[in-house]
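Chapter review. Work through the record for cysteine desulfurase before attempting the end-of-chapter questions.
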Amino acid sequence: MDHIYLDHAATTPMDTQVVEAMNPIMTNIFGNPSSVHSFGRKARQYLDDARRTMAGSIHANEKDIVFTSGGTEADNLAMIGTALANQDKGNHIITTVQEHHAALNTAEYLEQQEFDVTYLPVDEQGRINIEDLTASLRDDTILVSIMYVNNETGVIQPIEAIGDILKDHQAYFHTDAVQAFGLLDIDVQQSGIDLLTVSSHKINGPKGIGFLYVAGGTKIEALQFGGEQERKRRPGTENIAAAVGFKKAVELTVENKAEKRQVYASYKDRFLNRLRENGIKYEVNGTPDHTIPAIVNLSFPGTNVESLLTNFDLSGISASSGSACTAGSVEPSHVLSAMYGGNSDRTTNSIRFSFGSFNTEENVIEAADRVAAIVKRLAN
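Structure tokens for cysteine desulfurase:
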């Protein structure tokens, strides 16, 4: 039995070209990029090249890219660092109820530090109401943090509209773009984004590295203490090999972005069509009009998440009930609870399928057939 991976939103396999790019760095480039001698300068060259690639991918200045250990650290640095640095302007923060836990738990921490946090609701389509944001803005609002694409549903938020609202306000605009990067065209300047989070392992790069874009002039405090790396915003010796692998992954992503959108959209269509051909009743969670093609979240009436995932795994199908950070949890999805209410069956009978480089048209169809057989067996 072939195993079929439909959980690319959780993590992706490293591209072989990424591995090939990293191997000589791990073997030959061991200098500290902060050292002034030739070994350090050589390492610094690779790091600077990677930083330029990251910046170019979002139309940013290379000086505004801060390498981190991944998306979670970048979210923490963006939210806590900005909040602490701007307390003289106010203590009000706006986010949403459907953020990734890297941002949601950070917001809850900031509440414990006596910051006032407003959590915007989302509608049944999974999107915020722009009027809610406008009504929530105050003179003392210092940060608005709203994710670009939801990791469970793939729903895209109205990022440019948010940026337009905030362009004449003191509040900084942070967005977690971990699921958006590599599929959507991102221009931080055009969209009015001040802080943006990206993670390498979501785009077939190495784990343990990401970046935070911090627009020039943004006041932000470091959360760690040590050296003066990353322009004093994130101390610690940089991971050169991972940065080079990340760079290669970004280059491949930028080069193939349009093609991937088209391929993943075809996978989603074929997957859903095959389920219908098998007589499976399902509901798509989130608006299809504002969703990335790589993610589809389906509610299967009369089933429950635990039984579905267990049986999927036994049949060689890897999927998820939502964020990988809460995999194995029996708690209802906070994202779907925000969309449909905590008592909705959708919060406990929905599965996220996410497409990527491990998929082909053939194994997507095969996966749909296996999923259909299991749902038929388990549905009440």
